[in-house]
TrEMBL record:
It comes from Micromonospora andamanensis. This is VOC domain-containing protein. Pfam families: Glyoxalase (PF00903). Residues 1-124 form the VOC domain.
Length: 129
């Protein structure tokens, strides 16, 4: 099995952050799904063969949200989302979002690790759409 790791960042003003990342660092917009004024549901920025996913955070008091999660994290592509969620839960991960089909494709779930960092695992592979 091959695996790909993609970093995810959550910003209070994701549209502004995307513009800045494009301008300041040379990222390129691959996909941006608007979620209303000042919000992004999902974005993919590329830099060469690398990718960064951006989402809007709704927590005004980052770095921790009400559930003690840290915004942002890592997205890892896995073959079997449900089996992976069961394994993570059995190892003590706190499931934040149960496995579910996603509006931009694939199936995904998220969990908090032992320090509260949120990790996303899913079958959606942005390189194959």
């Amino acid at each position: 099995m091959s695996s790909t790791v993609i970093h995810v960042l959550a910003y209070h003003d994701a549209p502004k952050a995307i513009d800045w990342l494009v301008e300041a660092f040379g990222f390129e917009r691959r996909l941006v799904i608007d979620a209303g004024p000042g919000k992004v549901a999902h974005a993919e920025l590329t830099y060469g063969p690398g990718m960064l996913m951006i989402d809007s955070t709704t927590d005004e008091a980052a770095p921790l949200d009400a559930d003690q999660n840290r915004p942002g994290g890592v997205y890892v592509i896995v073959d079997d989302v449900d089996a992976h969620a069961a394994r993570a839960s059995a190892a003590g991960a706190r499931i934040v979002d149960e496995p579910a089909d996603q509006p931009h494709g694939g199936r995904a779930y998220s969990c908090a690790d032992i320090e509260g960092y949120v990790w996303g695992f899913g079958s959606y592979d942005p390189w194959k759409v």
